[in-house]
């Protein structure tokens, strides 16, 4: 394996048999773990034999890239301390700067890693970056990256070959800036329409979701053979049942900690993960949620604790029943306390970002100490802990006899093996000068734009108002006038002067628990457009004066009962640019998408449906699979 892009190195290069190798431990000789001619398994065994207990514990921690004030630049000194003193070698980046800044940050992290005793490179991970919707702790703004429809939109297209290309573009863009692990895809099923994380799923149908999950992972991991050279490790989430959210609440929050299966349909929520295993996914993230009652499937009864602590869920259903031997990465802050500000709410009007240090998700094991939670999770089958930097707790657990060294060996080996399989030890650095040119290329832009067009779902088209003919006088709400003018539209400044109005609105939501740390950022509550909704007020005002086309961004299903009687045409979108939208509205492209979720007729219907069943609300306004065309 030739050494790839290498700037000035702290690790010197060794030449053996005419080949070059990196002297990672600075001892002047070629050791087996430095020898890329050996298998990843051989190299892992050699490296593990050289590691201290503290270094193994650090490998089992998935920390966060520290950012300086403002959140745009790496805090190099803090990062060096995590890598050099805490022995962490996996870090999530939430940096939202441009590609060159991300590439520079990666190289700084890798330079710090080179200066450590064994020179173990850092795996940089990220939440999804290539979609329109973003929520802190769940995804990152696209920024420099190509912008595709949300996964829900990819399900509306339902073309696995396209999703595989999308995954491959994600892979290429991540590698360009040094990101080696994708905390995606979501294989969760959106079976409760009120849930706040619907947009990140591939909908509510297990067969569609499974095919999409498989295709995405094959793209991200560079083929169907598992983690290998050129792979970005995919972390499929959240094993399992997260979408069966009790009352629609999300389990980032203490009031939403439960998943529920009133129809005993837990097995259905396992099916999309079969696509991940068929693609030989590298890692699995367990759900935060805990069952609200007895759940038994495949002869296994789940424990009533969160997924990371649930031995029947991980060691039983995942490891034994499915033979999964990759990395199990916990979701964030599962070992942290959910103390007063987390459990009871922060002061009214306070900034929730200032309280993240007090946020925890130890559902079902709140009575245990953080160390005891780590012990229980490792025994359940967790290899790595997200959202903490407390590697010392694992060391203390071994010294106290609560865990064996073999437990840490097993977990750390799985993590290090994937670094070797990827070739990360040979090529941890990236070319900062080329990063921007390799992200959001013209070809990627065009494919993303085409996906945006194809994902649009035409829900209603009264009197065939669409496609729009040229030369129309249009009134715009949320659409760029300059873009509209490129389509021959004459933009007017009052609806009564227009032939037609085009409006962008978002699915309704409320922050019903704004004093909770994550509740303040969660789209929850009613799916109906109420009189207090600004978008609805605008629709009523404008549609009363001119035929109106409404496109609604569905990050959750919306109740459109009082929209369809006012709008001439209704188009569902899952993240779309003005260009892609107007291409479809003017007929340059025809709408192709089909609803991957049903749209209920009312809040009452949404509440009456069962959280664990797909498309089961009574008389939905728009059923699953609905979609018109021209």
UniProtKB/TrEMBL annotation:
Q: Which reaction does it catalyse?
A: Hydrolysis of terminal, non-reducing beta-D-glucosyl residues with release of beta-D-glucose
Lineage top rank: taxon? Bacteria
Alphabetized UniProt keyword annotations: Glycosidase, Hydrolase, Signal
What is the E.C. number?
3.2.1.21
Ranges of residues in domain Glycoside hydrolase family 3 N-terminal:
53-416
Where do the coiled-coil regions begin and end?
none
**Record-linked Pfam families:** Glyco_hydro_3 (PF00933), Glyco_hydro_3_C (PF01915)
Q: Give the Glycoside hydrolase family 3 C-terminal domain ranges.
A: 491-630
Which terms does the record give in the GO molecular function aspect? hydrolase activity
Which InterPro entries does the UniProt record give? Answer: Cellulose_Degrad_GH3, GH, Glyco_hydro_3_C, Glyco_hydro_3_C_sf, Glyco_hydro_3_N, Glyco_hydro_3_N_sf
Q: Does the keyword Hydrolase apply?
A: yes
Name the protein family: Belongs to the glycosyl hydrolase 3 family.
UniProt protein name: beta-glucosidase
Q: Which organism is it from?
A: Duganella lactea
